[in-house]
Specification:
The chain is α/β, with parallel strands linked by helices. It folds into 2 domains: about 300 residues, Rossmann fold, CATH 3.40.50.150; about 130 residues, no CATH class. The chain has 17 helices and 12 strands.
């Protein structure tokens, strides 16, 4: 333990001049401010950061209208949406097909010229007389995801299936209309359910006094009315805040560990062309972000169990379900090896945790290597990250990522601490209370 403490203390001393506190930014590293922002609030995405944070970073990094920003973990598109709203070219990538679908909907410029058709189709959908789905459709849907039986009543599943099929019928009419309507239905799935997303899982509402308390019983919500309100709110947003057409913006499904290839293959961008990277990789907290959207994944027909398992296995190794991929096995840092050894010695309640920690930093070295390759000389990379604690051992993710970045020509410029987070009750009970940092790490390419 003394050796580990010494290694981390050395890192802390080395990077101490880079560290500053800015607690006024604490809310900006969450999705909460987006709930009041048009278009950004179309779909609640708890893992995301805020549009306010992107605006702060664009100003801090002096990214002007000639800039080109990439977000390799773009989630539901906050970075590219803010950039295009400010006249800055941007591209986003994410490994989740759901996130990419939603991000693409937010930056779709075609909606504003199709408002009359959108109005017509919204009314058509919302006034369509209900028809019972076929027994086959119902049984197939419930068999795909047993969680649906707990998340909704059977009648509610039938209602949602009805609207899903009505929306699918619009696909041949117009792909943009289909995307818009599907986004609206996806956005209300949690609102009208008996569950709420929590970490990588779901918590049930008022189930024998266990789970999440709510002031309104979801069973009282009218699906048809909720969908109508959501779609008209979205329509109002695009009429009042149309996406500018002067700059390039796009989002794509892709792996951040192969960013250079993704940029070249999907958008024809060569290495060394990016002005800045603004992103937030998954935190090393064992949360499987794909698992949190199982309802959207299965119900909205983005894939089956085989596709889910394949996608989960190939995500960044921030959780224990992800698997190592040979081409992403970089050499680990001695500081990481020492931390992993200490976690193993202290003992964890799941044996895959040490391997997860090691795999996370191996994957993040690949990401940082690719970020360096994509950036222009002098370009900046900002990463919103959270330190964690496993088996009583603090893992200083922010410091270790700077060390990894140094191996690939990225120089640590600043570590902005936005808040300190407490450990889990189990950690505090066994090892005491040691708050850990959530930070914005800024690196600069040599």
């Amino acid at each position: 333990m003394a050796l580990v403490a010494k290694k981390i203390e050395t890192l802390e001393d080395k990077y101490l001049p880079l560290i500053k506190e800015a607690f006024d930014l604490r809310a900006l590293t969450t999705f909460v401010p987006n709930k009041k922002r048009p278009i950004h609030n179309w779909f609640p995405y708890t893992q995301g950061f805020s549009a306010d944070l992107i605006e702060y970073l664009l100003k801090k990094l002096k990214i002007g209208k000639k800039g080109f920003v990439v977000d390799p973990f773009c989630g539901v598109g906050t970075t590219p949406l803010v950039c295009v709203q400010h006249g800055i070219s941007s591209i986003g990538f994410d490994i989740s097909p759901i996130a990419v679908f939603l991000a693409d909907a937010k930056i779709n410029r075609s909606y504003v010229v199709k408002t009359e058709l959108l109005k017509k189709e919204i009314e058509g959908i919302c006034k369509s007389p209900f028809k019972e789905p076929s027994e086959e459709s119902l049984s197939v849907t419930l068999a795909k995801l047993p969680l649906l039986r707990h998340a909704y009543s059977l009648d509610r599943v039938k209602e949602l299936l009805f609207f899903r099929e009505e929306i699918k019928r619009r696909r041949e009419l117009d792909q943009d209309i289909y995307q818009f309507l599907k986004t609206g239905l996806m956005a209300i799935l949690e609102e009208v359910s008996n569950v709420r997303k929590h970490g990588a899982h779901y918590r049930f509402i008022n189930n024998n006094n266990v789970g999440v308390k709510t002031l309104v019983d979801p069973s009282l919500f009218n699906v048809r009315q909720c969908l109508r309100l959501k779609l008209y709110k979205m329509l109002s947003d695009i009429q009042k805040h149309p996406i500018p057409g002067e700059v390039d913006v796009s989002v794509h499904q892709g792996d951040a560990r192969m960013l250079s290839q993704e940029l070249s293959r999907k958008v024809g961008i060569r290495k060394g062309r990016c002005t800045a990277i603004i992103t937030s990789p998954p935190y090393l907290n064992r949360d499987n972000y794909i698992a949190q959207h199982k309802i959207e994944l299965f119900f909205m027909e983005f894939g089956d169990w085989e596709a889910y398992r394949r996608l989960t296995a190939t995500t960044l190794r921030s959780h224990v379900e992800a698997r190592s991929i040979p081409e992403f096995l970089c050499k680990d840092l001695p500081e990481v090896a020492a931390l992993v050894k200490q976690v193993e010695e202290n003992g964890v309640n799941y044996k895959g945790i040490p391997e997860m920690i090691l795999g996370y930093f191996q994957d993040m070295e690949c990401v940082l290597r690719e970020i360096s390759s994509a950036l222009k000389p002098g370009g900046a990379a900002t990463l919103v990250v959270g330190n964690v604690r496993w088996a009583g051992v603090v893992i200083p993710v922010d410091l270790l990522l700077i060390r990894l970045g140094e191996k690939h020509g990225l120089v640590g410029e600043e570590i902005i601490i936005t808040r300190y987070k407490n450990n889990s009750p189990q950690q505090m009970k066994r090892y005491g209370k040691i708050p850990v940092r959530e930070s914005i790490v800024i690196l600069r390419k040599d």
